[in-house]
Amino acid sequence: MTLDVSSINVIKMINDSSPTTMDANLRIDTGSMGGETEESRSSLCLHWVIGGEGTGHHALRHAFDRYLKRPDVLDKGPHYPLWVRMWDAHLPRLPRKAIQGAFRSLVAQYCASGVRAIFEDTSFPYGGVGNVWSRFASPKSRRGPLRRPDIAEMLRLLEGLPMKILVLHRSPILTVNSTLSRGFSSDLQFEAELAETTHQYIAEQVGSLPESSYRTLAFERLVEDPLTCLKALAQWWEIDETHAAEGAEKIRKPTSLNEVSEDRLRFLEQYFSEEKRLRWDSVYQNNSLVS
């Protein structure tokens, strides 16, 4: 979509600014943005897929590829640089008020342009690999510092904009194995600890959300019965169910426990004890997308 000059300047200023210069350089009047009404805001919704690494973000994105290309759906739209400044640990934090003002300006234009959905899929934690920041990570890891997006902060940022969050979850043994297999790290202990704290973080945040704002889905259930799961998601997101039928054919079963090495499997089974998994499983099992 085409942005007006004022919004382009706001985004450029945010991307070029540091926290120390932002307050001095940027003053956004959030009460005079115009073009946005309560009625228009109610027709726009954030479809947000969240979950730990290896829980199926890419599979779901691939399944709904045609839907994400619709002109009334924004995937990594003009607002995305603002969110990256909130989430990417490699970038300095900026004042939430400035980001909020810029985002509201964009929302006004989205509504006026007929955009009905903003799509975002976020892997927790959020961050890159293979860069100069790696020296702050585990010696065996190529990761830089990672940041876990704050869901409560996003609720404040959106200021009442409808949000439908899909929480993906999967056996932590398989998610850790997936991370190691993709070469993000060779440190088994580090990745197990990272997965544990990520599960706890997501469970704590999701547990405080209104139940109407989220649904949970086990990746194992998605690959076992993709048509049922994607149809349920299409109904909840209020999108054409033909996208679900097309997407179900693209879902493939990934690595199973049988493909995890014996030593790695033994360590992870001991690490992720039943008692430890209960800390987050109670949240994941609540408010499921499919019965």
UniProtKB/TrEMBL annotation:
The lineage of its organism: Bacteria, Pseudomonadati, Verrucomicrobiota, Verrucomicrobiia, Verrucomicrobiales. This is Sulfotransferase. It comes from Haloferula chungangensis.
